[in-house]
Amino acid sequence: DVNFQDFQKFLCYYRGDIDQQIEVKGFLGRRKKQIVDIFERVVLLIQFQNEAYYIKKGIDPKKLNFTPGKMYLYFYKDVPKYDLELLFPNVKTWMTWKDRLMLLVPAIGAGIGIVIKVLPQISLLLLALLVSLNINPSKVPDWLSFINSQQSNAVTNNLAILVTTLSVLMVLGGFVAKQYTTYKSKKIQFQKHVTDTLFFRSMANHSAVFQLLVDVAEEEECKEVILAYYHLLISPRPLSAEELDEAVETWMHQRLNVDVDFDIQDALDKLQRLQETTSNGSVQGLVVSDRHSRSESKQSSEPTRYHAASIPDAKYIIDRLWDNAFRYNC
User: What is the DSSP string of 125-176?
Assistant: First the structure.
């Protein structure tokens, strides 16, 4: 459970909504496969309310596991949709009705057995209490009538009463301790699930998120450019932007089973800007269009077509661009 009123600002972005097949434990420990809806990448930005907000609610800011007024930034991977709440620092965990029943039903069953087991001892203690209060035996309730004379005589024995009392307390105390241990074990198990979700799915926190996002953006830009250059290189003829866009999207679907809306014009513009003066003095880019080689009449009726530079020319252009990227003059 997450209280969104605790936030001054809250932003959540995701990328990649996919279905993933996982194995989970089923009935009697059998493994079964289950489809889980997963976000491949999640970026979470949170700014909490200031200290006055929590003081007004009667909460000591020092006992919080976050700093009021501070902004937090997180980057996670492969997060199931039903686990999104676990990413928030102010999440409050509650037991589900299933978990409650799993604790309550065995407790009731065990409790009935224990009550039946200690009922003679309890009745003996009640009878001892009645005797100590000088209650007339004729006034003893009927539901205590099953106590035989031997037990009645035992009431006068202080040691027997003490042993009976201790045995009842030990049985009941052991039952309570067992149920409390089961509850704590269930709570620790759930907290471990939360910790595993945060630890193993975390990619970066706070300022490191910006560096990682820049790296991811640069990587995607490179993939875009390489895909466009590769399909122009293997094409036996120059391609228009529409033909190249269709070729890339078809390749992505066939190879990776992914449907994308490829931004082909952006990739072509980047490839054309990567140009350098060749050995013969001409300017050449990684991708060349026929826009300037056609007549004005053809430019108005036919789409611009592009072809890629050869591998040796591309290596020369990239090498020259890299060597001249940073110049240092004494």
Answer: HHHHHHHHTT--GGGS-GGGTT--HHHHHHTT-HHHHHHHHHHHHHHHHHHH
- pLDDT at 62 (0 to 100): 86
Tens-place pLDDT, residues 192-206: 777 777 778 889 998
For the chain, the residue count is 330
| Structural domains of the chain, with CATH | 4-92 (no CATH), 100-196 (no CATH), 220-292+304-323 (1.10.10)
Q: Is the pTM of this model over 0.85?
A: no
Distance from C-alpha of 267 to C-alpha of 308, rounded to nearest angstrom: 13
The helix/strand/coil state of 291 is coil
- What are the helix (H) ranges across the chain? 51-56, 97-132, 149-154, 158-201, 207-234, 241-256, 264-273, 296-301, 311-323
Q: How far is CA 224 from CA 51, 147, 245, 262, in A?
A: 47, 89, 11, 8
123/115 Cα distance (integer angstroms): 11
Residue with tokens 């060349």: 288
Nearest to 84 by CA among 47, 41, 49: 41
